[in-house]
Queue: 2 jobs
Job 1
Amino acid sequence: MTRPAPPRKPPTMADVALATGVSPMTVSRAFKRDASVSDATREAILQAAEGLGYVFDATASTLRSQKTNFVAVTIPSINNANFADTVGGLSDGLKERGLQILLGYTNYDIVEEERLIEQLLRRRPEAIVVTGGKHTDRARRLLTNAGIPVIETWDLPSAPIGHVVGFSNALAVRGMVDHFVAVGYRRIAFIGGDAHRDTRGTDRRLGFIAAMQAHGLDATRLIAAGVPPISMREGADAMAHLLERLPDTEAVICVSDLSAFGALTECQRRGVLVPGQMAIGGFGNYEIGAICVPSLTTINPDPRGIGANTAALILDVIDSKRTDPAVIMLPPDLILRQSSR
Amino acid sequence: MTRPAPPRKPPTMADVALATGVSPMTVSRAFKRDASVSDATREAILQAAEGLGYVFDATASTLRSQKTNFVAVTIPSINNANFADTVGGLSDGLKERGLQILLGYTNYDIVEEERLIEQLLRRRPEAIVVTGGKHTDRARRLLTNAGIPVIETWDLPSAPIGHVVGFSNALAVRGMVDHFVAVGYRRIAFIGGDAHRDTRGTDRRLGFIAAMQAHGLDATRLIAAGVPPISMREGADAMAHLLERLPDTEAVICVSDLSAFGALTECQRRGVLVPGQMAIGGFGNYEIGAICVPSLTTINPDPRGIGANTAALILDVIDSKRTDPAVIMLPPDLILRQSSR
DNA sequence: ACAGGCAATGTTAACGATAACATAAACGAC
DNA sequence: GTCGTTTATGTTATCGTTAACATTGCCTGT
């Protein structure tokens, strides 16, 4: 009379304890770092655990200890080298402490961001990192009341919720405008998206306009190239548009290196010399800008540095080494390359 | 006599229940979709919850119901448009069911992958998706014993652990070699990384060698360009190397579009005409290949499709609509563009 | 008018770990 | 040799939610 194989529930610490002849508490200690368990006992426990196929249950641990070891992170898009670098820096900085990243993306939409933040907070992260400083009212409330460290990145919010690790997108673009003007360009255009979804892109356009006006120059050569975030294709289309409508333009600043590269290729297709007939500037210091011919003048916002600083900040706050809201600014570098010589 | 503000523990369902005058169980039901609660009661509960600043505790829910609503995913690198697209397709397909992605990256290292898999399994995901079919023995064991659906992607493992959603990297490259030969190229080189870290890259190189030999052609023009995954810079370096050492080479197939683009720029810097003097093929159908001048012949492995199919498969398995291990092949497309005309 | 059914809600115990406290044994200082 | 201290381990109760079962009341059909 053979029974059907029982559904065989996965083993728990109690099973490991039974197999080793100790109490569950000792098993629990054996899986911690600093706990006081004799080497022999720990060895026996871990071996029994491996033999039984026991896998630590982080959920139960979390519920009792009220520590999830999660850090929640929202980024606009997972498919973006800049944000990926920030997550990389963050992840590396948190790894040694056993903090795991719970990642979500908002698709550049603050309503989606609100939904995402709520979902993430349900997992009770130890801290939450959001990209950007613009949120729905409810999202702000959720973050404020979450009772955990909140870090806004990639931006310089006028009214920060908690901590900030970022920079001013507008000021960064101003630096590039200043450079272009100093080199002698006057009829300068800006290529960006056509909506306010991408707030960092919008800030860059506003920074462009303000900087041009500060120089007493015409700030109306604005090409809106499609729904943000715009990429290579839209950059190329925008350059086509620009060359047809405003052919006397001498230089163009693009909202990103990707659109700048697209714009560059359109010049190549049309035989427009870069930088001879058209100078180009980008934003973001993507790899492509360093490799393409001609290489692209750009702004390096140090995405990995943002992530690394955010990680360090989180650890300091968790260790109570820091109690007041921090505002960490990482001034972006202007990188001069062939496209604006 | 003012007391110091109490640490004010975050409200629980019991608090919401008290505030609404119902039992905690009814509050629990109000937060579910299908549960039987009257509209009036649910409304009152949700309003009270919002007023108290209550946030659902997914950890406790998970522990009791044994459902985490997590799907674990490992990718080699977060900073890669192909894998990002796969995660995007996966995420979109799982979102409607409330399944959240728990993402980790292995840095192209199967030892790191093992560590990561163990970490992820501790969170008790409903399913686990791994990139690639090569794992450490212990990782294989962990996956096999996890008791959840396992899906290997982006590959065609010889001995699958569970389900597979992928394609043969070797066969895909063979298709490109066949094309190059048909068009008349004979002295064809391959540019890739110099180690076995990136198993998909290695498979592509092996596919190249096999295909060349099948045509009776010299398969020794192999340029190793650095630690995988190689990118634009390494592609440029490799092309420089190739042009100096094997100047009679007529065409080159690169392990990725990124290295192919780097190789292309090196040709541009040296005045080597593409495709006139050197034809180039890439892999991955990255955006850059469609935009650059000349545009790049490439292979489209349909990363988003891999993600979407994986999501659909996971839902089918969870719903028990499918019980046997699935092997879903998405044959990559060869995309012919200017760089190999 | 009453059985049967369904909708809305309540009660109890449990998910699997560990914080907090308790205890036993070993060790050293004087 | 006694006492305090440290080390290794055990016991009990609990984290916040929900599965499973129980109950109440209202509606429907005959």
Job 2
Amino acid sequence: MIDIKKLRDDFDNTAAQLARRGVEKERLEKARDLDAKRRALVGETETLKAKRNAASKEIGKVAAAGGDIAAAKEEMRKVGDSIAEIDKELATVDHDLRETLLMIPNIPAPEIPTGMDSAANVVVKTEGTWTDPDFKIPTHIEIGEKLGIFDFPRGVKLTGTGFPIILGQGAKLQRALIQYMLDLHCQKQGYTEMLPPFVVNSDSMTGTGQLPKFAEDLYHCQIDDFWLIPTAEVPVTNYYRDDILSGKDLPIKLTAYTPCFRREAGSAGKMTRGMLRVHQFDKVEMVNFVHPDTSFQQLEILREEAEEVLKTLGLHYRVLQLCSGDMGFSAAKCYDLELWAPGEQQWLEVSSCSCFTDYQARRLNCRFKDADGKTKLVHTLNGSGVALPRLMVALLEQHLNADGSVTIPEVLRPYMNGQEKLLPA
RNA sequence: GGAGAGAUGGCAGAGCCUGGUUGAAUGCACAUGACUCGAAAUCAUGCAUACCCGCAAGGGUAUCGGGGGUUCGAAUCCCUCUCUCUCCGCCA
């Protein structure tokens, strides 16, 4: 949620920045006007309440002294009725204002390129080079078939489409990747590992913004009103919901491995084959709670931390800076990391590193005590570090050998009992 | 799942029966000052959050788990929901 004061005190400038994301001015004006109306009503009702409080005190005294209080009571009853009326209107305005504010995305950082879709994204850098080998690289589906590590049909039997089964040395490789990434983040990058619940309540989903807008994309357990997490961001970020952190503890860096569950209703299309887009997948996530002064600096660090994973696995990747219109709703600035998949002949997004400034923290009500003793909103960041299925795809395709085997990156071998290659079955 | 008890400020813990001067005793913790070479101890003072008005000083409103009700007035009475604890049942 953006700061209403930005609309109150700096409307034109804020509107101009948000226009870059396609936010119509009318919506902002609506929020601004509702805010003005709200404050007017608050003034009215509070004045009346002050009057009633004073009178009630007086009535108490008069009654104790045995005086006549009938007239005063009657008058205050009328005041009470007025208060009730105003409060009712106020509740409506409050609700409308909140709804309107929740529909307004974060203000993009000034350096973000302007654009409405991915066409305006900017390639910041490309790491490594790629030269096709002298044999044809099939898709990960075929590679996986030869290695005997994927079973899509039986995934359909067990659950449905989009729930692949990973087997044998492939399952082991995935486990190795998870462990390697967690160890990298915790041992070299200062993260604390967390193993959170994979199922959360509605408050948590609302705290990170999945609800109410994206309920359709989530799996819901109706009996308990619990939700399956679409990303570890949800439990990890909500860990500090409604909390006041100590300023000297910042930055707080948490990382978690979790499965992620995404219904993504109506997402059928080009990415649906194989592992590229699935309803359940594994991911290692990084979440930072930082001092507002350092958030954009921390974003660069976070991006490097995610890159480190790809780099040490010897993978060819590129970094995109997302344009104003292609960023997630809550982000002020965002980088995507994309791996080259030579079999698919496309770049695959495996990580998204975002700085949310205070946008998410406001909704989350996550604050900290600054050095001056004041309570302020923290800034939050998160980044995938990284998502597993597409990482597997790129790894299989980039490290494929002519004989159908796949070379296991050296950093993973300690987690694979020294195994150097995935071998065809 | 069944039965019972409970939810009060950073923590502990009064108040609730008998509604008003209780934003809430007391203790601890914390901050500042005094004493001290320094510390401990002791003493003094301060110490919730959010919102609204105001340049400020300051004023106002709300908050005693959430929501609703009764009343001129609710931490206190009524209804309801949630959660926690204890015992029983089930269980990896």
